[in-house]
Amino acid sequence: MCKNHGVAYVKPGVVEVREIAYPKLALGNRKCEHGVILKIVSTNICGSDQHMVRGRTTAPEGLILGHEITGLVIECGRDVEFIKKGDLVSVPFNVACGRCRNCKAGQTGICLNVNPERPGAAYGYVDMGGWVGGQAEYVMVPYADFNLLKFPDKDHAMEKIKDLTMLSDIFPTGYHGAVTAGVGPGSIVYIAGAGPVGLACAASCHLLGAAVVIVGDMIEERLAQAKSFGCEVIDLKKDATLSEQIEQIIGTPEVDCAVDCVGFEAKGHGSNSGEEQPATVLNAIMNVTRAGGQLGVPGLYVTGDPGGVDEAAKKGSLSIRIGLGWAKSHSIHTGQCPVMKYHRQLMNAILFEKVHIAKAVNVQVISLQDSVKGYDAFDKGAAKKFVIDPHGMIA
């Protein structure tokens, strides 16, 4: 039997590569005939993984991380009809059954059948159904005919694999943030956060025809990365307010729409830039978005945060100025991205050269053994998207 290795969460601040069980086509004690086993071609480190690694969730010791997966099908269950051995596929990070009310409505991020605790599941993530993560050499994917996106030409896909690996999460997630914020031709949009999701959102805004894309962050290298593909940037460490800095760019202190790509570990702006203030981004984007505008919130917020700044924050209860949002008639859209809603169209945009997402998020390919170093560099604010290549298959 082939050996398997994966990236395990050990304790706050510590991950390690361990030998783990080779995946089986099984769910508990029963055969998983609707699943496949993948040999992983690429699997990415995500900011959501970092929340767990920092100890900011209730993740258990030994959890195998990784929800951004692209792989080769090497074994199929008896009931898999349309996906075949040898197919190169993208795996949405949402585990979805394809049969429940929400899946049938396209809301695959809140499937009702794949997590006994609550709607929605993901690979390698705390409280998300117990599915084994994909920062490994091999992984099992259930409901394969429904979940998997097959690339139409394997050779062409491998030429674009650094871009296509983003289809499992951050490209659709960034795009979803832009779409739910109402970004369209001529929009002026503010994006909070220049991490990989924020950069993917910025690239998505360009794809959707935005006139001005403004990205705010506190890390100079990440702002430089946003600037490299045509974004305006705001250094949130400066004492000038966000609205003042926006006015310097576009002549008015408000934007049409805004996207929160930061989430619950947000820090204060200006003189408070080193201080954690979990509601600061939500309040800031309400402040700078015009009346009648829309807010997309793909940034992660949790129901349990052991490291929260106070007892309320530890339960995910934040001091949000909902009265301001109400007064301005804002539409606010939160939650996991339903990846399947977008990934086929975004695949085509990549394959036909309409977007270069790997360049936008600054992909760096690393080995599975170097994943520990990748986590450390990412935690320190590296302006890179780390892509793990477990089998040395990426040129």
From TrEMBL:
Pfam family for this entry, one: ADH_N
Lineage: superkingdom: Bacteria
Cofactor: Zn(2+)
Protein's UniProt keywords contain Manganese: no
InterPro entries: ADH-like_C, ADH-like_N, ADH_Zn_CS, GroES-like_sf, HCHO_DH_non_GSH, NAD(P)-bd_dom_sf
Segments forming domain Alcohol dehydrogenase-like C-terminal: 196-263
Name of the protein in its database record: Aldehyde dismutase
